[in-house]
Prior knowledge:
Elements: H1 3-7, H2 10-22, H3 25-32, H4 36-50, E1 55-58, E2 61-64, H5 66-93, E3 99-104, H6 112-123, E4 128-133, H7 136-144, E5 150-154, E6 163-177, E7 187-188, H8 190-193, E8 198-201, H9 206-217, E9 226-228, H10 234-241, E10 244-248, H11 249-253, E11 260-265, E12 270-277, H12 284-300
Helix pairs in contact: 2-3, 2-4, 2-5, 3-4, 6-12
Amino acid sequence: xxxxxxxxxxxxxxxxxxxxxRNSISAAARALGLSQPTVSKHLxxxxxxxxxxxxxxxxxxxxxxADADAIYSESRFLQDGIGQLExxxxxxxxxxxxxxxxxSIGLLMNxxxxxxxxxxxxxxxxxxxxxxxxxxxxxxELLHAGLIDLGIMAGRVPVRDEEFTLLGxxxxxxxxxxxxxxxxxxxxxxxxxxxxxxxxxxxxxxIGNVLExxxxxxxxxxxxxxxxxxxxxxxxMAQTLKRCAIVDEFTARSLQQTGIVCxxxxxxxxxxxxxxxxxxxxxxxxxxxxxxALRKLLAER
Length: 301
């Protein structure tokens, strides 16, 4: 590559074209939003890189040389190309022609995922956004099948070749009937809760795995006569059957049932919340913006 091409930059080319078109360094500086000394320096550097005299000063006016005419003529297609590139970049930022398919576990769908979607659509208003709910295992299957771009999961998730981004952490809480003696307490232990009949959540789920380990360390077990495979089913079952249960804080905070109350556990039993994608997942910018928004929302709660 010649010395001229090593010394050329897009900004120097833009400065040259502005000065050429306006016959004025000050006018070019105003158009570019730069100071006059900065424009003069870029112009000198451009001339030095070319080894040509591109402008001459005559009676206080800048005049283009024949060499400047030739360079400007050849550079116009570059300027047009830069304009088209800038337009394409702006279109991509707004989501024009783009798509993002997100699948989340249900416990974040009442508030956090919709709010993250709203934040994303403000930044990329023309993005086609597809949102669905499913368990982590199903999300992983669809992710590898190329049917979704981003999964939002919680707890312990088996790792293969996925990219995991930690978004935040949640905690477990107790749910007890309003007429249960524990309902008057501000904080309870797992041992206190498991004295009473329980509605369990399956240990196969990521949250269930976290709870199962906490119980095992205390010599307790999930041996209730009622087991729900979905966390969303636990609160209504607990209310109807007048049983206690352990759920995540997000499910607890979205309770519509009036016959049960949520109580903090004395043990800080927490689980991770992840954004999961593949290296080959499309629309990386949308994935990043959505993940960043969800992380911020979880941090602010």
